[in-house]
Amino acid sequence: MKTTFSILLFFLTFSVFPQVSFNIGNAQLESDLHSINRQGTSNYISFKQELSVSFNIPVQKIDYMRSELHLIPGEIFLTLEIARLTRRSYVDVLRVYEKDKAKGWGYIAKQLGIKPGSAEFHQLKNNASSKKSKWKSASNGHGNRNKNSKKRKS
Q: Distance between CA atoms of 115 and 7, rounded to whole angstroms?
């Protein structure tokens, strides 16, 4: 019974959050992007609002990337972060993505001027790590904020 439950849990986990490969060329960044992707998938409304504020982009454009271009949350974050780091528009990043998506995000970043080991690449890693931590703590803090607001109403 315990083995059957474990197998079922394994399949449910990977069917709800399928593992994708960003092919970014760095294990820690890949891991952070998976975390961002899981958090963005499980709470897309907060995710897109946070991106909208952080990157000064309308929520509708984030929705477009998800619904029309079928980007997952981690890819949306990468698109916007690469655009910021390269000082290009997110549309420029998406053009390269459409042309070279089969080669992975590491290749796309290189095409746009972010080389492995460069200052921009380190900034990309740091920003992904910060976003992952921020969204994780924000989702944990959100529950506490609701509890406190209910106490105040009483």
A: 41
pTM recorded for the entire structure: 0.77
Q: Quote the crossing angle between the two packed helices 44-55 and 59-67, to the nearest 10°.
A: 130
Q: Give counts: helices (H), strands (E), the chain.
A: 8, 0
Residue pointed to by tokens 């890693």: 125
CB 136 within 8 A of CB 118: no
Token representation of residue 142: 């959100």
List CB contacts of 37: < 8 A, sequence separation 6 or more. 17, 20, 72, 73, 74, 75
Phi, psi of 34 (to 5 degrees): -65, -40
The Cα–Cα gap between 50 and 37 comes to: 14
For 97-124, write each residue's pLDDT tens digit: 999 999 999 999 999 999 999 999 999 9
